[in-house]
Amino acid sequence: xxxxxxxxxxxxxxxxxxxxxxxxxxxxxxxxxxxxxxxxxxxxxxxxxxxxxxxxxxxxxxxxxxxxxxxxxxx
Length: 75
Description:
This protein is an all-alpha fold. It has a domain at 39-75: Met repressor-like (Arc Repressor Mutant), CATH 1.10.1220.10. The chain has helices spanning 24-27, 42-55, 59-74. The longest helix has 16 residues, at 59-74. Keywords: Plasmid. One of its GO terms (biological process) is regulation of DNA-templated transcription.
């Protein structure tokens, strides 16, 4: 009986090591971001979280939309 060479045809390493080239979204100009951190009391957070769930959006999306609307309200 002949012994195999021990090679299974597989390579060691993570699949992510062979990452694909850049995508179109990687090449797009993205605005620099700034992290915003503030405190809400539990009731306010719960209210915001419920609103987000009811509208199917994230809290982040809701707050970004609010900030974008500020330009329109200041006119």
